Amino acid sequence: MSFEPDFPFNDLPDLSPTSEIETKAILRKVAPARAALASLAESLYHLPNAELITNSIILQEAKDSSEIENIITTHDELFKALVMQSKLFENTPTKEVLRYREAIRVGFESLRGRGIINTPLTDLINKELLNHDAGIRRTPGTKLLNDRTKEVVYTPPEGRSVIETKLDRLWEYLHERTPESVDPLIKLALLHYQFEAIHPYSDGNGRTGRMLNVLYLVQENLLPLPVLYMSGYIIRTKPQYYELLQAVTVEGRWEDWILYLLGAIEETANSTRQLVAKIRDMRREFDQTIKTNAPHIKQVHEVTEILFTQPYSRIEFFVQAGIGNRVTVSKYLKIL
Hints:
- The protein has about 325 residues and is mainly α.
- It is built from 15 helices and two strands.
- It folds into two domains: about 20-280, Orthogonal Bundle (Fic-like fold), CATH 1.10.3290; about 295-335.
- About 65% of the residues lie in helices and about 0% in strands.
- A two-stranded antiparallel sheet has the order 1-2.
């Protein structure tokens, strides 16, 4: 393998089982990460309304994953945009984050229909994310720069056929089921690195790759919904994240990278589970608050569902849900 930052890394090795991918340290780290994921999955199965998670945790992941790429907005703007006409946010960070959220949804629905991660799925995600259908990179010249020094640190493979072949081999490795196959969580770490290294699109590779992380967990039946809030962890450890990715490329240091991502999975699975529990507890508290302070509102559960799904709510949301006519709903909202 030869690597030079300024030259296309067409010699990027395909993934294959090696001794350093299943070291003792890595295998010890897999067990707590799997346990944390299982606990999160259990909490999601007991949610009465999955959309509560879609509009909170997935939106948070979309916001922070975009922030890694310096696309910055606020929760307030995002929740406002969910109830406004999308054209009002065209070409803004808010619009881009909402496209990320929609790309996760589209990817999740497609995965449930097709069953596996492949190039058509990543094309679909990237198209939804960028709002155009550029597909696999055709033109040369893509280079990754150090944010501070602006020096070239990596030049991904070039040539459409080269890129497509490397993606095909990545999916083959990802989906193989043999006695030599490594644990899916280790494969996820390998997937994340390899997709970043192939860098198949002209834009949106990092965000597309981070979506693949959670979609792969859904594919492997480790999560029922694509909700693992990993981007917050990456933001907090951003220098380490990029340093370890580069160390795999330059030095072949797989162990440190895999341990990092297993730690990210464990920590974020635990924190996401805690967030799910907080949402569930707050919902119950809000139900009780309405019963205590507005006893004439009979459809308490339905009102809370709407408010937790759409923090910026319109009268028509409640009318369409059959809670009352516009006059009645307007009175309810003034009280609330």
